[in-house]
Design a protein that fits this description.
Elements: H1 17-55, E1 58-59, E2 67-68, H2 72-79, H3 81-111, H4 118-130, H5 133-144, H6 149-156, H7 172-197, H8 201-209, H9 214-225, H10 227-242, H11 246-251, H12 261-270, H13 275-299
Antiparallel strand pairs: 1-2
Helix pairs in contact: 1-13, 2-13, 3-7, 3-10, 4-7, 10-13, 12-13
């Protein structure tokens, strides 16, 4: 009689239910930490932006009923001479932003290498950015006023009739843009300085061995090495020039032809009680900034890292 052979079925081990639930809970933990900041971001950023877009299609004074007007507010922004003029004022700040980037890059390159009193100069360049904007505006208001500090210095050099720095509509925006350059150059200076100092020193040593000049070192080592930081600083400078508000508002409140786009938007909303039109102006500014950002991203794309 043949002996019966007992066989035992083979089973595949399965994860314990408790361990599976623990794994799912671990994956959900980051989202729990992000829940509050994402909620605040939506509540205080995206919801107001959505409301602003809706207001821009209405004729609303901020208190009464809203009357839909379609694209009338946008048509007025681009056709009314009053609102077109404030776009031109932004060109002064745009030129000032370009000058600011050039000066910041020059001083950052110069002070990245051995220079006497370089730490002192670093502090002097960055210090204005640490000062409150209101304080700077008040200081330059007295500095540029008739008979102020600048006029007194010019008289010492033989200038008998200094210009009306804040009273002449032809040069008032130049004065305000120059103040903005002095105010914000320190930020770009620090960004450029950190980027230049992050370049490996071996590249500079190799350039010295090959007999490269200072211009060659800047052109072939420094400029490519800080390309991304230059792109970031450019987008910040352009956005800041388009949304200039603090210094011209505190110093002159838009007088003598110094009204910027943001100042005009504030006046339209809170003085003329045209919230719908002001919202359309804000949306236009937002779209311009987004377009500039898109161009910057196209010119300076993210570098892809090959992990192969």
């Amino acid at each position: 009689m043949a002996a019966a052979v007992a066989t035992t079925p083979t089973t595949t081990p399965t994860a314990a239910p408790g361990r599976a639930r623990s794994h799912r809970g671990w994956r959900a933990t980051p989202w729990l930490f992000l829940l509050v900041p994402l909620g605040l971001l939506v509540l205080f950023t995206y919801v107001p932006v959505a409301n602003m877009v809706w207001y821009s299609f209405t004729d609303w004074d901020g208190l009464g009923e809203m009357e839909p007007v379609g694209l009338a507010n946008y048509v007025r922004v681009f056709t009314d001479e009053t609102y077109v003029q404030v776009f031109l004022v932004s060109l002064y700040y745009l030129v000032g932003a370009a000058v600011q980037l050039v000066l910041a890059l020059y001083f950052a390159t110069l002070l990245s290498f051995r220079t006497r009193f370089r730490n002192l100069f670093k502090g002097l360049i960055f210090f204005p950015y640490l000062i409150n904007g209101v304080a700077i505006s008040l200081v330059f208001l007295y500095f540029l006023r008739p008979g102020g500090t600048l006029d007194a210095v010019l008289v010492l050099f033989g200038v008998s009739e200094p210009a009306q720095w804040l009273g002449d509509p032809g040069i008032v925006n130049v004065s305000l843009a120059a103040t903005s350059v002095w105010r914000y150059m320190g930020l770009n200076f620090v960004l450029f300085l950190g980027a230049i100092q992050s370049i490996p020193s071996e590249l500079y040593e190799a350039a010295d061995i090959d007999g490269a000049t200072s211009w060659d070192t800047f052109r072939f080592i420094i400029a490519p090495g800080i390309r991304r930081v230059v792109g970031l600083s450019a987008i910040l400078a352009i956005s800041g020039s388009l949304s200039a508000f603090e210094i011209p508002f505190i110093m002159l409140d838009g007088a003598n032809g110094s009204t910027t786009f943001v100042i005009q938007t504030v006046h339209t909303a809170f003085e003329f009680h045209k919230v719908g039109l002001a919202s359309a102006m804000a949306v236009v500014l937002l779209l311009i900034v987004l377009a500039v950002t898109w161009v910057q991203r196209a010119l300076f794309p993210d570098e892809k890292v090959d992990l192969a």
